Amino acid sequence: MHDFELYNPTRIVFGQGSIARLADLVPAEARVLILYGGGSAERNGTLAEVEAALGRHHVQRFGGIEPNPTYETLMQAVELIRHEKLDFLLAVGGGSVIDGTKFVAAAVDYPGDPWHILETRGKEITRALPIGTVLTLPATGSEANCAAVVTRKSLQAKLGFGHPLLYPRFSLLDPVKTYTLPPRQIANGVVDAFVHVTEQYLTQPAQAAVQDRYAEALLLTLIETGPQALARPEDYDVRANLMWAATQALHGVVGAGVPQDWATHVIGHELTALYGLDHAQTLAIVHPNLLLERRDVKRAKLLQYAERVWGLRAGSDDERIELAIASTRAFFESLGVKTRLADYGIGAEAVERVVAQLEAHGMVRLGEDRAVDLAMSRRIVEACL
Ligand code: NZQ
Ligand code: ZN
Predict the structure, then answer these.
(1) Which residues pair with 238 in a beta bridge?
(2) Which of 44, 14, 39 is nearest to 135 (CA)?
(3) Domains of the chain, with CATH numbers?
(4) Which CA distances in Å does 107 have to 6, 82, 144, 149?
(5) For residues 78 and 343, what is the distance between their CA atoms, to the nearest angstrom?
(6) Among 188, 284, 382, 383, which residue's beta carbon has the most beta carbons within 10 A?
């Protein structure tokens, strides 16, 4: 196992009714901005519950943060905060609202144009407003990590950044708040969490027994609870297990001291920037093909995955690896997430466009061994057609 340092200061309050805890988790003197998305939190009563819990605080609202949050929209929140002298940000929503809130938190006092935060991946952040979150969509793990992804529409660029100052102070996880999710978003969340685990697990052996078993536990839980959540949307225990699995997939422990890949995510972000696909749709398309392209360097872990996650023991090594990758694709499809570019009406012209974007963003040495160059990315995207 490689040396590592693990730091995660986010306080998780998990369970039905946890929104009531806002009253004591948000400092009494705070001037609060609630940030939310396109209206689901308003329609299903979550926003009203949040405001009731914050009864005596000074509270203002900023709505309209879109899926794959944009710099253009977020800068409006930055202006509002500067003008109204607000000093505590409360994100109510899914990964997009939470990521957008992280950007806003870092942008308010950032010297110069805050797009620089994306250009430098957050390295030069020195201050950020405090953040709390109320999670409504289990998927990204953003509620308990310090990363975020923001899109600049005018540049068709979707880039990630992170900084330890951006860990939420607290995150409230009430599984009941996920009951209103449409099937597409439930499925997206399962796929996203699944691929977060495999990006940190399907690499090379690192003699990290705990991280391996932890990853396998999360994958098995997602394989079990994903279909259950679609079939029984108001089953509390199913939703609770799904929510907790998604949070743990990307809060640090699975990836501590082990190689990490993330090439599927980087290629996927370009597909979202170019074609507007949901984040998880891009992962479902790219990941099986990335695993096939990289099956030799990932061989030992793919065999372990085949046996421990999919229960495959018969056949040759190559057959088990291919079946494990096919099972992964079939799992995504069974949730209703299509795994071919053609399923989304995207044709062969995508190959050149994605490769050009990767090059423009300097994404030319991806993967746990930095061996995924542009030629390899091209082969992977070609296989996605
Ligand atoms: O906007 P509203 O009206 O609220 O509707 C949202 C949105 O349309 C809806 N929704 C959320 N909670 C709901 C609900 N509808 C009904 N009931 C509820 N309880 O769901 C739609 C999608 O929301 P979004 O926040 O976009 O989804 P998700 O959580 O999947 O976030 C995706 C974003 O996170 C980034 C992705 O790139 C993408 O931009 N990621 C962030 C990561 C991180 N910070 O660590 C890692 C991930 O790999 C990912 O890249
Ligand atoms: Zn993801």
Answers:
(1) none
(2) 14
(3) 11-177 (3.40.50.1970), 183-383 (1.20.1090.10)
(4) 26, 10, 20, 14
(5) 38
(6) 284
The response to whether residue 287 sits with its C-beta less than 6 Å from ligand 1 reads: no
Which token pair is 315? 């056949």
Name the pTM for this structure. Answer: 0.98
235: left (phi over 0), alpha (psi -120 to 50) or beta: beta
Instruction: Looking at the CA of 195, name the nearest ligand.
Output: 2
Ligand nearest to the CA of 239: 1
CB 113, CB 124: distance < 8 Å: no
Compute the CA torsion angle 146, 251, 332, 281 (nearest 10 deg).
Answer: 0
Please identify, by atom number, the ligand 1 atom nearest to the C-alpha of residue 180.
17
**Do 384 and 289 form a contact (C-beta atoms < 8 A)?**
yes
334: nearest Cα among 284, 370, 381, 382: 284
169-221 tens-digit pLDDT: 999 999 999 999 999 999 999 999 999 999 999 999 999 999 999 999 999 99
Q: Phi and psi at residue 159, in whole multiples of 5°?
A: -130, 150
CA–CA separation, 66 vs 225, rounded Å? 27
Which numbered atom of ligand 1 lies nearest the CA of 40? 3
The residues near 126 (Cβ < 8 Å, ≥ 6 apart) are none
Q: Within 10 A of 73 (CB to CB), how many other CB atoms are there? A: 17
